[in-house]
Amino acid sequence: MDLALQLLFTGIGIGAVYALVALGFVLIFRATNVVNFAQGEFSMVAAYLMVVFAVDLGWPYWVSFLCALAGMALLGAIFNLGVYYPLRHRTFLPVIIATIGASILMANSVLAIYGPQPQVLEGWFETPGIQLGPVYLDSQYLLIIAVTCVLVAFNYWFFEHTMVGKKLQATSQDKEMASLLGISVSTMIMITFIYSAVLGGLAGILVAPILFVSIQMGSTIALKAFAATIIGGFGDVTGAIIGGLSLGIIETFGAAYISVPYKDAFAFLVLVLFLVFRPQGIFGERVAEKA
Amino acid sequence: MKLTRRDFAAGLAIGVTAPYVIGSARGQGATLKIGMCAPITGPAAEAGKYATGGAKLALEAVNKAGGVLGKQLELVIEDDQTTNPGIVLAFSKLAAQPDIVAFLGSIRSTQVHAMAPDVLKLGKPVMFGGTDPNLTKLGNPWLFRFRPNDSYSGRVIADYGVNTLGKKKWAVLHSTDAFGTAGGKALSDALGKLGAPPVLDQGYANQSQDFTPVVLAIKSSGADILGSYFTFENDLGIFARQLRQLGVTIPWVGSPSIVNVTALKLAGPALYGTYGVADYAEDSSPGSKKFGTAYREAYKVAPDNQSSWPYDAVTVLAAAINKAGSTDPQKIREAIISIKKFPGAEGEYNFDDKGDGLHGYNIVKNDKGNIVFDKHIEFTD
Question: pLDDT tens digit string along A220-272?
Fold first, then answer.
């Protein structure tokens, strides 16, 4: 039982990271109908920005955090203008390839500027964790879970109860109709990219004290987050959260009770099962091809 | 003078081919080339920087001392991207250059396995640092190892834990790649021979983000000592932190990666008090000290085994080619095999006919971040 509780906590913690990145995938997919394969690199770039501000420049953690998120907002805007906007009238394929190209560019730019050394970023709290009975609660994982909960609530409020959120929803559902109603579609897409980059960055900054800051950190998380997005139902915000958490729990328990070396295989086995038996994911709606 | 059509054709042919002929002659004459496959990008890019640094340092020393066969040595580096397909591609690019006389391969056994068939096909000497014992048992006469193999590290870890630390309930943790699997098996076999078979033999996949299930397995196994073979420092760092966070404080004797500069930086206090087998320990011999001083002076960082084996590989190779008096691959091979009592950064080289140059390991301790040399254990069998 003690073992299961410890595994459950870790599974939720790592799942929350997948969920945060998956959320970025979903928001961009809803707004533009394309998958942004550079979402993982947003996390990596943000973690490096934190290293630059908090470690190299020695700025206070909070200031560094806000500056890193501001940097991510800027990167999101540049990404939209440089990668998506010029190709917005093309089919989804050139845009997806452009996002893959952008991810390679970002990874190698950081490598060229900052070098290949993995970096250490200290966590938010001086106490590494607390012992609660038989379970050790890593303070960084606790923070990640808390931030994910807050973001779920924020997303609900933002998309359901603010005008900008409703405009974003309208844009994602039907761009032409939204445009006819006077909504600036390009502005909405710009906001989506900025928000997604900030979300991805947030995940990167939060997970960096656990996984260290390295060029590969983004792609490792993004692959699992992508699987989480499909499991949850592509295009569904709740699905991304549930998918991410489920994936974290499944792989942690699978590793503990079945096989550690095949930990990643459990995640992708679940993905394959979903693709075969429920391709629309947990929360996705079945979309029939029109005759 | 009248220019005939034949004169014109001959002139044109000479004009077109001359640059290549002259260039080729210059290429053959000016320097002696060594190819090096190194991880410039990918997860081991950090280690790749140290490896090329070590090789370049040896290159400078060799050239300063007069070079090889009266020529200056030149290093041609190709990026192996830290992947198996990457190193196969990098090696094929280097192998296509006929004026490269010998090569440096990888410190990663899995990559050396990947390139081994092409090495055999090419028939030129390749120095490498991978420690899977099987690599020099493949029947490939062109592979030469510049680090002690894992049959030695496994025996040293087992011997130290059982006889010096007095622990008999072992948890063996290893990566599931070629290096980790071979190392884990070597350690388990050595423990079996000492009458202390492991109570837990646990593999893990590289680039894991979480080691909680592994730590809990170690905890519930009742092991009183841990032996490990980690391939990547990131994994080692994450595991070390989680091990300590989850309250496991048993002694830990690890393979060489546990004392790597990168691992020490990433894991910090989580590795304090651990032991490691280290093929490179700065205080283990005058040769190691000499390399350490030169490396620190050149790069302002502490040396480790990522940089020491390429340093030795270039130094030994240069000595062997000079001894052979030729760049004929077979003659270079014979010269390398005949090298005995050669003082290198990693230790004293005594090559056997399989291509293994070193036959022992150092035991070191992490004393609050400082790596302290304990003793060297050499095997003759």
Answer: 888 899 999 989 887 788 888 999 999 999 999 999 999 888 888 888 898 89
CB contact under 8 A, B212 and A214: no
Given the structure tokens 């050499």, which residue do they identify?
B378
Write phi, then psi, for B172 (nearest 5 degrees). Answer: -110, 120
Alpha-carbon distance B326 to B318, whole Å? 11
- Residue A34 in 3-state DSSP? coil
Q: CA-CA distance, A199 to A207, in Å (whole number)?
A: 12
- Closest by Cα among B48, B122, B121, B129 to B357: B129
Q: Is A43 on the interface with B (CB under 8 A)?
A: no
The predicted pLDDT at position B272 comes to: 96
Q: How far apart are the C-alpha atoms of B234 and B252, rounded to whole Å?
A: 18
Q: What is the mean pLDDT of residues A11-22?
A: 91
Which of chain A's residues have a Cβ under 8 Å away from the Cβ of B265?
120
Q: Using pLDDT thresholds of 50, 70 and 90, give the confidence band for residue A85.
A: confident
CATH fold for the domain made of A2-277 = ABC transporter involved in vitamin B12 uptake, BtuC (1.10.3470)
Give A-chain residues touching B41 at CB under 8 angstroms: 108, 111, 116
The residue of chain B with its CA nearest to that of A136 is B246
Domains and CATH numbers, chain B: 32-148+283-349 (3.40.50.2300), 151-278+364-378 (3.40.50.2300)
Percent of chain B with pLDDT over 70: 92
Among A118, A136, A211, select the one facing B246 at the smallest CB separation.
Answer: A136
CB atoms within 10 A of CB B168: 16
A93-132 residues labelled b (16+ CB within 10 A) or e (exposed): eebeebbeebbeebbeebeeeeebbbbbbebeeeebbeee
Q: What CA–CA distance (Å, rounded) separates B21 from B283?
A: 51
Would you say B148 and B80 are in contact if contact means Cβ atoms under 8 Å apart?
no
The per-residue pLDDT of chain B, averaged, comes to: 90
* Chain A partners within 8 Å of B230 (Cβ): none
Q: Which of A84, A125, A102, A128 is nearest to A45 (CA)?
A: A102
Residue of chain B nearest A255, judged by CA positions: B213
Distance CA A283, CA B249 (A): 44
On chain B, the residues whose CB falls within 8 A of the CB of A261 are 176, 203-205
ipTM above 0.90, yes or no: no
Give residue B23's pLDDT: 46
The pLDDT assigned to B22 comes to 46
A133 touches chain B (CB under 8 A): no
* Nearest chain A CA: its distance from B238 CA (Å): 6
Q: How many residues does chain B have?
A: 381
Delimit the domains of chain A by residue range: 2-277
Contact state of A212 with B176 under an 8 Å Cβ cutoff: no
Alpha carbons within 13 A on the beta-carbon side of B262: 28
Bridge partners of B163, per DSSP, are none
Q: Cβ contact (<8 Å) for A215 and B45?
A: yes
Answer whether residue A100 shows pLDDT above 70: yes
Tell me which chain B residue has its CA closest to the CA of residue A112: B41
State pLDDT tens for residues B286-331.
999 999 999 999 999 888 889 999 999 999 999 999 999 999 999 9
Instruction: Flag whether pLDDT at B360 surpasses 80.
Output: yes
Do the Cβ atoms of A119 and B49 come closer than 8 Å?
no
